[in-house]
C-alpha cells in the first residue's frame, strides 16, 4: 500500500513536459545548441555578436537541464542582430538633446529538431537604454549592452521554453 502513492505519482507525471524554474521543455528534449548570432546591423560593435551568443548559451546551460551539443541538438537557436543604433531623444526648450538612446533589435528562430512537423518559432526582440546626452557613448556603451543582452536573453529564453 505504501508503494502505491509513489507509483501513482510517477505514472501521473511520466508523460508530462519537464518543468524547471517555470519553464516547460518538450518531452524527450535533452540537448540544445545556440548558433553564433550574426550581426547584420549597419552599425557594428565588434564583440556584440559573440557576447550575445555567449550570454544566451550560458542562460540555457545554467537555467535548464539541457546539455549543449553542436551535433544533432534537440533544440536549436538561430538569429541575427538586425539593428544597433544610437539616436538623439527628448529635445529640450533650447533645442539641445536631453538624452541619447541605444536601440538593439534581434531576430530569433527556435527550432525543435525532435519533431519536424512543428514549424520553427520566429520572433523579433528589442531593447533600449537611455543615457545622458552629455555622456560619451564609449563611457557607457559596454555596460548598457550588457544590460540589454541580459534583458533580451531573458525574453528569448521565456519565449522559447514557456509557450509549448
Explain the overall architecture.
- The chain has one domain (27-162): Double Stranded RNA Binding Domain.
- The longest helix has 26 residues, at 137-162.
- It is built from three helices and eight strands.
- By secondary structure, the protein is α/β, with parallel strands linked by helices.
- Strands 3, 4, 5, 6, 7 and 8 form a six-stranded mixed beta sheet that branches. It has a two-stranded antiparallel ribbon with strand order 1-2.
- Strand 1 and strand 2 (23-25) form a beta hairpin.
- It is elongated and about 60 Å long.
- The chain starts with a helix and ends with a helix.
- Helices cover 32% and strands 36% of the residues.
Short description:
This protein is an alpha/beta fold and 164 residues long.
Helical content, roughly? 25-40%
- What count of domains describes the coordinates? 1
Shape: elongated
CATH class: Alpha Beta
Distance between the termini: 36 Å
Stretches where pLDDT is under 50 for at least 5 consecutive residues are 3-20
Can you tell me the CATH topology?
Double Stranded RNA Binding Domain
Structural class: alpha/beta
Relevant CATH superfamily: Lipoprotein like domain
Regarding quaternary structure, what we see is: single chain
CATH architecture: 2-Layer Sandwich
Strand content: 35-45%
What is the tally of beta strands? 8
Task: Characterize the largest beta sheet: strand count, sense, and whether it forms a barrel.
Answer: 6 strands, mixed
Q: Number of helical runs?
A: 3
Q: Mean pLDDT, as a whole number?
A: 86
